[in-house]
Amino acid sequence: TMDTATWASEVRRLARERDAVILAHNYQRPEIQDVADHTGDSLGLSRLAATVEAGTIVFCGVHFMAETAKILAPEKTVLIPDANAGCSLADTITAQDVREWRDQHPGAVVVAYVNTTAAVKAETDICCTSSNAADVVRSIPEDREILFLPDQFLGAHVRRVTGRDNIHVWMGECHVHAGIDGQELRERVAAEPEAELYVHPECGCSTSALYLVGAGTVPEERVNVLSTGGMLSAAERSTADKVLVATETGMLHQLRSANPATEFEAVNPRAECHYMKMITAEKLLASLRDGTTEITVDTGTAASARRSVERMVEIGT
Ligand code: 13P
Ligand code: SF4
C-alpha cells in the first residue's frame, strides 16, 4: 500500500494525463477532499460541473450528484469512483410516484431537491438545493400550489421560512440526517449552553432547533439552518468558541480547516453516510487509471432534467 503523499501525487498525475478535474462533496473522506480540485456543496459542485474546462469530471460524491454533473455537461465524460454510492433520500421517490402525485394536483409546480435521480428530475419543474430552496419557492407565484419532494424536513423548513401553506411535502428522508433528532439536539444544547448551532435542514432536529429559539433556550442569532456550503462560509467568519454541527460528520474536516480557532463538534458523531464513504482512496485511483465508472443519462431524460436544473441555476442564488 502507498503512503498518502505518494497516492496523492499519483492521483494528480493521472488527473493531468486524463485532462480530468476532481470534484468532491463536503461529506467525502478527508484525503479525498484534500486531493480534489474543488470541494463544495451540491449547488456549488453543479455550477462548477457546468463551467469547468476539463474534458473529464471525476465526481467524488454520490450517484445523483454525478448524474447532475452529466446533465449539465453532457459533452463531458463524467466518472464516479464507485457507481454503487447511492442515496437513501433519492431512493424514496420514483418517476412514476411523481407522475401520480402531479395527477392528483393539476396545475401545481413540482419542486425537486437535487437529491433525486435524473429520471425523477425529468418529471419536475424546477430543482433546488438546501442552500436555495426558499429562494426557488419564492420565485413561484404565490397562488400556485407547490409539490415539494422528496425531503420532509427540508420541505417543512421551506414552508416555515416562506410562510406559504400551499406547499405539499413528500414524506421522504435521508437516514443519516433523520437520525440527528430533536432529543439529541436538546441534550447537546443543555450540555453546551453557550455553543452556536449549525443545523442542516434535512435533519430530524431542524424543527426542534427553531423550537429552542422560540422557547428562549437558545438566542436566535446562535441558531443557523444552513446547507453544507453555508456552514463553511459561516465558519470562516465565526468568532464563536464552540459550534455544534448537525449534519454528516465529513463536514467537520472542512469546518476545522476553515477556522482552527473555533471548536466544531458533531451533534451526533455517528451520523456518517456510508454511501459517501464508499469513495475510497483506492477507488479514486482506479477510477482515474481505468476511466471507471462512466455515468450515462439517456438523451431524452437528460434534456427534461436539464430544464429543471437550469431553471434553478438561472435564479442565481
Ligand atoms: P448540501 O451539500 O447541498 O447541503 O447537501 C447535503 C446532502 O445531504 C447531500 O447529500
Ligand atoms: Fe443521501 Fe443522506 Fe447520504 Fe446525503 S447524507 S448522500 S442525503 S443518504
Task: Produce the secondary structure layout.
Layout: H1 4-18, E1 20-25, H2 30-35, E2 38-40, H3 42-51, E3 56-60, H4 63-72, E4 77-79, H5 95-104, E5 109-113, H6 118-121, E6 126-128, H7 133-138, E7 146-149, H8 152-162, E8 167-169, H9 175-178, H10 182-191, E9 196-199, H11 206-214, E10 223-225, H12 228-237, E11 242-246, H13 251-258, E12 263-266, H14 281-290, H15 299-315
Parallel strand pairs: 1-2, 1-3, 3-4, 5-6, 5-7, 7-8, 9-10, 9-11, 11-12
Helix pairs in contact: 1-14, 3-4, 4-15, 10-11, 12-13
The protein binds 1,3-dihydroxyacetonephosphate and iron/sulfur cluster.
Residues 62, 87-89, 115, 174, 176-177, 248, 273, 275-276 line the site of iron/sulfur cluster (SF4).
The helicity comes to 40-55%
Query: What is the count of distinct domains?
Result: 3
String of helices and strands: HEHEHEHEHEHEHEHEHHEHEHEHEHH
State the secondary-structure class: alpha/beta
**What strand order characterises the main sheet?**
2-1-3-4
How many DSSP helices? 15
Biggest sheet layout: 4 strands, parallel
- How would the global form be characterised? globular
The low-confidence runs, each spanning 5 or more residues with pLDDT under 50, are: none
CATH topology of the largest domain: Rossmann fold
Enzyme class: transferase
Organism: Haloactinospora alba
GO molecular function: 4 iron, 4 sulfur cluster binding; metal ion binding; quinolinate synthetase A activity
Catalytic activity: iminosuccinate + dihydroxyacetone phosphate = quinolinate + phosphate + 2 H2O + H(+)
